[in-house]
């Protein structure tokens, strides 16, 4: 166990409840506007604010004497003390000189463009309201930062896809892929009605967002397809060749919504080839409720289990210690041939949703290596209360993976250890940990308890509030004395920590390692 350091913990054995008084904001009569002023964006307007202790009438008079003859004040807010000036031309050559002149006038606090703002990332895809998968993984919040990048490529190794589908065509390069099943350069399924799987999988990951058509995938990346399945089956050799081809094509992520049989060297070598080529393989765990199938179970492949919209493990989802993350896989709505949409269920759907989230992470942090992207997908996953062999690190989360810097979370580190003692069942110790690195981006917590007769649990919050077994942001709650978890940080914060005795008693050591951004 590492040596205790500077005790940046605040031990709180007596809990405190913090209350906040509500505040209300009263709005008086707000505006007076020129009749007929149109709603919506107003790119041809300048907003002018008044300095303290200067009346808006005075500034209005100053503005009227300063602006060009073909400009006019069209709106006034007496409470916020600004006026809106409409110009005849919104070009920079016209706007900027007017703004500069206004800012020099006495009594004027500021002059600025009447910028256009937008509703936060509610896409205009007409069937978005029928979906739940993007919402469950918090994709709309991520889209405030990025909707993805065509510089990031997902290769879908599957039945091929209708790459000219109305909701997918924009995602493909001129050369959409290769058909290993028929050995030709066209991955379009020869019998689309019997080969819908690859189109649906591609749409789960990357149906075009905000194109006014159909559904929304998770990100607007580039798609390529390797057709390795005819109908719904294919040979190991075609699949291995497809994986190798995708890696050679420079795919950042390979989605493998397929599997069967046991471990084999050809499949293992293909997965290792992709991983060593800086391509991240992500695969479906399997749909028979048994152990994780291959290729998902290979060491260098991420395994994805399926959950429903209530974050319960799907009854069909395979499970086991190889599971890395969980993702929506029940009744997932996505494109199918020909220019249609359908709800499919399976870990086949969960895997491309996770791949789409990973692609958002890569778009936001393009310098991430394959292993760093793997780690980031796990570190930013949300614990949804399922056993580790059901959810791995948790449910993938798009909003969290796009946060932070682009250099990976492996820079400056700080380590602190605190020792304690729980005396009986249900005893607890509370701590507040204050981050100290220049740009905190991650945190690891390790709890070592007294022995196998005890069952200690670890609960964490990332806003400093005191966690409880019913109120926490992350937890590690196994059946023994030792627990560990990792979380992501997005700047300086307080982290609340609870060590709780589910049963047993004795001493423990709690070690926290904080990571800063490169």
Written description of the protein model:
The protein has 3 domains: 9-14 and 409-516, Jelly Rolls (Sandwich), CATH 2.60.120; 44-113, Alpha-Beta Plaits, CATH 3.30.70; 131-401, Peptidase S8/S53 domain (Rossmann fold, 3-Layer(aba) Sandwich), CATH 3.40.50.200. Strand 4 (72-77) and strand 5 form a beta hairpin. A 7-stranded parallel sheet has the order 8-9-7-10-11-12-13, sandwiched between helices. It has a 5-stranded antiparallel sheet with strand order 1-17-22-19-20, with no helix packed on it. The chain has 11 helices and 23 strands. It has helices at 56-66, 92-103, 133-136, 139-143, 197-206, 236-248, 265-276, 347-364, 370-379, 388-391, 398-401, and strands at residues 9-11, 31-33, 45-50, 72-77, 82-86, 108-113, 153-158, 172-179, 222-227, 253-256, 280-284, 302-307, 323-328, 332-336, 340-344, 413-422, 428-434, 440-448, 455-461, 474-476, 483-488, 494-503, 506-516. The model is unreliable at 1-34 (pLDDT under 50). By secondary structure, the protein is α/β, with parallel strands linked by helices. The radius of gyration is 28 Å and the shape is flat.
How much of the polypeptide forms β-strand, as a percent range?
25-35%
- Low-confidence stretches are 1-34
CATH class of the largest domain: Alpha Beta
How many domains in all? 3
Instruction: Give helix % range.
Output: 10-25%
Active site: 158, 197, 348
Protein name: S8 family peptidase
Pfam families: Peptidase_S8
Subcellular location: Secreted
